[in-house]
TrEMBL record:
Gene3D superfamilies from the UniProt entry: Homeodomain-like
Region (Disordered): 47-70
InterPro entries referenced in this protein's UniProt entry, alphabetically: GcrA
Protein origin, superkingdom: Bacteria
Protein name per UniProt: GcrA cell cycle regulator
Pfam families hit by this protein: GcrA
């Protein structure tokens, strides 16, 4: 099956109307659902809402390496018109979906990171911080080694990173 200009235009039209890949394949005839999905990707057509997910205005090309950042997300409700089948009739209806927007993370400026004592595994004691630093397969791997309270394997700084209060975990996990 060849993708003629006419068939590609019909694909674009049906895709923009919100039809599924299966429905488009049935209307075009002689083409599978997977072929439609592949052509949509190659044409870089705008994405659509996923169940409980985000709406993407258009496929964005992958970016080069940038500085890592930890985004947080805020949820908002958006209305979207979708087409669904009921019996032999296609119905259009408006539904509410949760859209997710990115919020930029700004770390606190008053955080002081302690200087690591850079201890090896054999140098650790029950009163030193056992927080691993770096890649264990590299030569510069070490442990924090700062003083730790009596009942903890970590120093005060690394305790805050390792242990979250229960109410924080519940809020973060939904």
């Amino acid at each position: 099956m060849n993708w003629t200009d006419e068939r590609v235009e019909k694909l674009k039209k049906l895709w923009s109307e919100g039809l599924s890949a299966s429905q488009i394949a049935a209307q075009l005839g002689g083409v599978s659902r997977n072929a439609v999905i592949g052509k949509v990707h190659r044409l870089n057509l705008p994405g659509r809402a996923k169940a409980g997910g985000t709406t993407t205005a258009a496929r964005t090309p992958k970016r080069g390496a940038t500085a890592p950042r930890a985004p947080t997300y805020a949820s908002r409700v958006a209305t979207r018109t979708v087409t669904r089948q009921q019996g032999a009739t296609m119905l259009k209806e408006e539904i509410e979906i949760d859209a997710v927007s990115e919020i930029t993370y700004r770390p606190a400026s008053n955080v002081v990171v302690p200087i690591s004592r850079r201890l090896g595994l054999t140098e650790l004691t029950e009163r030193t911080c056992k927080w691993p630093v770096g890649d264990p397969l590299k030569d510069d791997f070490h442990f924090c080694g700062n003083d730790s309270p009596d009942s903890s394997p970590y120093c005060t700084y690394h305790q805050r990173m390792a242990y979250q209060p229960v109410h924080e975990r519940r809020r973060n996990n939904g």
